[in-house]
Amino acid sequence: MLCRPNSSASRNQQAWAAVPYGPKLHDFLQDEFLRTFWTRLMRNPIGALRELWAPIARYWPDTSTTLLSLAEDADLLSTGLNFEQSAGNVAEYFDIPLIMLHHFPMRPNGQLLPMLPARLVRSGGLLSEWLLWRATKDADDAQREVLGLPRATRPSAFRTARRGAVEIQAYDAVSVPGLAMEWAKWGDSRPFVGALTMGLTTGADQDVAAWLAAGKPPICFATGSIPLESPSDTVEMISSACAELGERGLICAGGTDFSEITIPDHVKVVGAVNYAAVFAASRAVVHHGGSGTTAASLRAGVPTLILWSSADQPYWGNQLSRLKVGAARRFSATDRNTLAADLRRVLLPEYAVAARAVSAQMTSPTDSVTKAADLFESTAGRKAV
């Protein structure tokens, strides 16, 4: 198994042999770039996209070398979003099937921005694929030349689709209304399996469970893996908003260090927790809007407030608003007053009712893993087109 250096998979090798692959997360994209990406995109779209895609081209040769050393005699090659273009070329070289794991609707579609005409949104996605290919074409051409493959004339997504690649959609169709119908023409090549999670327990789970049992369900704040710029201001904002609403607050710190900050009695700060257990025991959840965390809050059946910063986060915020199970706001535009107002809104009874209804349509974690495993088994050994 190839995994990002310093990832949980690379540290937990009981079930598989983990090989470092690609750069560390913070070497790939800097925190500051992620926080300011959408501002940059609005000011200079082409420049922002080039900066976003530059690491793909920079690390392309290294990923190709690693894959070539390990994929020979493999029955199948699987890849995540990053470097799927490099993996596609290697799969073509060895003539083996390819599975791509998408935690977000990556291919052009008309559902990501429901406030805009579907045709316009779909065309924008198609343009983005062509721009990505042009921005990384030198790396693509160089790899294909080394492998003795024909020079590419179309983006990687077109080439892998022609070879019969399976693009597993690791999220639920219900979370993006209309997408399953729009993509029905792709048949079994874009199956929806639901979010994949290992459901690991953590050392904080018992302590958190005791705190949860000692009072009414809290509002859970999952801050994500990217460190917050000002932890003290964040705690002040959260504690003030919760106090105004008469709620308890549980902050799941993730990548932020809160150890030097005084925490009020009605707020508890912990590190990594089991989101499935904690979210389900909360009255509402506030998080950054990443694909995995969004799926966890939807499965929990509780209202969600997404305070987004970058990447796919605003898109998931749009979808939750569309489903009427939550709301979204840019994190940099959030203060104590807006947080209290947004929470007051999502705590209305109709949001809880809608959240429970969507939760009932979500694929269970066990079924998601089973569906994905079945796809791997049925695809392995199958000759690519």
Automatic annotation (TrEMBL):
<protein>
    <submittedName>
        <fullName>Glycosyltransferase family 28 N-terminal domain protein</fullName>
    </submittedName>
</protein>
<feature type="domain" description="Erythromycin biosynthesis protein CIII-like C-terminal">
    <location>
        <begin position="262"/>
        <end position="363"/>
    </location>
</feature>
<dbReference type="GO" id="GO:0008194">
    <property type="term" value="F:UDP-glycosyltransferase activity"/>
</dbReference>
<dbReference type="Pfam" id="PF06722">
    <property type="entry name" value="EryCIII-like_C"/>
</dbReference>
<dbReference type="GO" id="GO:0017000">
    <property type="term" value="P:antibiotic biosynthetic process"/>
</dbReference>
<keyword id="KW-0808">Transferase</keyword>
<dbReference type="InterPro" id="IPR010610">
    <property type="entry name" value="EryCIII-like_C"/>
</dbReference>
<dbReference type="InterPro" id="IPR050426">
    <property type="entry name" value="Glycosyltransferase_28"/>
</dbReference>
<dbReference type="InterPro" id="IPR002213">
    <property type="entry name" value="UDP_glucos_trans"/>
</dbReference>
<dbReference type="GO" id="GO:0016758">
    <property type="term" value="F:hexosyltransferase activity"/>
</dbReference>
